[in-house]
Structures are given as structure tokens and as C-alpha cells.
Amino acid sequence: MENNKYFETIKCDDFEVFNLDYHCKRIANTIGLNINLNEYIYPPSSKLLKCKVTYDDSGILDVQYDEYKKRDIKSFKIIYNDEISYNKKFLDRESLNTLFEQRQNNDEIIIIKNNIVTDTSIANIAILYEGTWITSKSYLLSGTTRARLINKNELIQKDINLEMLQKAKKIALMNAMIGFDIKDDYSLSL
Q1: Which end of the chain is more exposed for a tag (fewer CB within 10 A), N or C?
Q2: pLDDT tens per residue, range 125-178
């Protein structure tokens, strides 16, 4: 039996570590172990860091820190794939990377599975539609920022189709590093 490896990407800034409770919950949901990440994460500088915690079914394997530089994302290629599965944050991202390679001249992809907008290759997505921020009930990965914003009632869950995406006033990408990143000026490519 293959031993899968997983990872968490955790934001560290000015020696502060963000949203550990949500990362601990996702680890528990992934491998069934309650791991206190406070025992493993010690940011080595005050810079904005991306902390990558690698783990498997037995526990934490590695912790690495890299200075974080946000990607400038303004254009999206719509990619249809009904077979994609990324319900755990697997270290092996080959299925996502293969889809990302299809972006052509765009900065990022938006994956549509079974006619529902799911995620990008690096983030969950929300749209401002009819005055409300919504995120699809059908997503690929249960993101920590997505979960936090739903718990705070700042997002509602409702499946998003392509027509809704095209009519949206704004979109937002969300992940542990960028938070809720609103895009006012963007393009969609079919």
C-alpha cells in the first residue's frame, strides 16, 4: 500500500503564524491524527514566509520556510475536467499541474468539473454575484481560508456555473497565503 504524502502551506509574517487551528483540523481530517502544529513551526525571520509542512499518515515529516512573493493573476483560462480529484492536499500535484499547463497565455486556470466552477490550481474561488459573495459547494480542496470565511458568514455556499462566473461583478481567490484576494480587473478565456 502506497503511503501518501500531504502538505500544508501556512502563512508566517513578523514571527506570527496564521490560522493554525484550521490547518490542524485539515491535517486531522486527512490522516486522523491530532497534531499540534505549534510544536513544529518556528518562523526563522520577520519576513513574509510560506511555511510548508509535509506529513504522512504517521505524522510530520518536514517543515520548510521560503520567502513569499505573490503572483500577479489577472487572466484565467477555463478548463473543463470531470475526472480531477484533489480532495486532500497531496504533495503529488501532478493532476493539477497538468491542467495548469493548459492555461495558454493566461496567468491561471479555473477548473470546471461536472459543469460547476470548483477551484484554480492554487486557490479556492468566490464570486460577487447579485450582491453576495458565494463559493461553490462543489470544490476540489477544502481550503482553510474558505472554511474560515464560511464560518464567519462572509461567504455563502452555492454551486457556481459558467454563466454565473461570466456575470459576476468581481471574483476572489483565497488561500492561506493571499487571504481573500479580490480581482476587479480580470479576463476569462474559454
Answers
A1: N
A2: 999 999 999 999 999 999 999 999 999 999 999 999 999 999 999 999 999 999
Give the C-alpha separation, 97 to 9, whole Å.
17
List strands edge to edge, sheet with 5-13. 16-17, 5-13, 49-56, 59-67
Nearest-angstrom CA–CA distance, 51 and 12 = 7
Scan for cell 480587473, then name that residue: 185
149-156 long-range contacts (CB < 8 A, ≥24 apart) are 149/174, 149/180, 154/180, 155/126, 156/132
CA atoms within 13 A on the CB side of 47: 10
- Domains of the chain, by residue range, sit at 5-67, 75-189
Distance CA 176, CA 179 (A): 6
Query: Which residues, listed in sequence order, are joined to residue 62 by a DSSP beta bridge?
Result: 54
Beta strands in the chain (DSSP E): 5-13, 16-17, 49-56, 59-67, 75-80, 108-113, 116-117, 124-129, 132-135, 156-157, 170-175, 179-183, 187-189
CATH class of 75-189: alpha beta
The pTM score is 0.94
